[in-house]
Amino acid sequence: MTLQKRYRLPAVLFLFSLVAALSACGGSGGSAGSAAAAPGATVIGWQVGATNVQTTVKAGTMVQWKSTDNMTHTVTSSSTPSAFAEMDVPGGGFSSPMVFNTPGTFPYFCAIHGARVQNGTLTVTP
Ligand SMILES: [Cu+2]
């Protein structure tokens, strides 16, 4: 085995992981959001500075997040593994409606502004 061969494989692996990381970052999230509230949806206000937002709903409830500061946000699960697909919240608009059928506690944050200034927990009861 030559010295050259020894170094070639790790370099290729590094490039592959870099491409994977970049494409994961470039993804625009699960949904583009919507302009209006869905009928019957529980609407959660979502803005920079909204921390420890606590909402409790019954299983089967439709939930939507609304940008109340006209800025674009995300609703991103902070569980590992992720408990739900990331949602985009367009500035001044709503996330796509999402029905939570499984009881549990779902912490989330905004991936654009960061968990420090934007985080909450959705609790779904049976
Ligand atoms: Cu945000």
Fraction of residues in H or I helices: 10-25%
Q: Provide the CATH topology of the domain at 42-125.
A: Immunoglobulin-like
Number of strands: 8
What is the H/E order? HEEEEEEEE
Strand fraction equals 25-35%
Q: What integer is the average pLDDT?
A: 83
Head-to-tail CA distance between termini = 62 Å
Number of helices: 1
CATH homologous superfamily grouping of the domain at 42-125:
Cupredoxins -  blue copper proteins
Which ligands, by name, code or SMILES, are bound? Answer: copper (II) ion
Radius of gyration: 19 Å
User: For the record, what CATH class of the domain at 42-125 applies?
Assistant: Mainly Beta
Report the structural category: alpha/beta
What is the second-level CATH architecture of the domain at 42-125?
Sandwich
Shape: globular
**Weakly predicted, low-confidence segments:** 1-29
Strand line-up of the largest beta sheet: 2-8-7-4-5
Biggest sheet descriptor: 5 strands, mixed
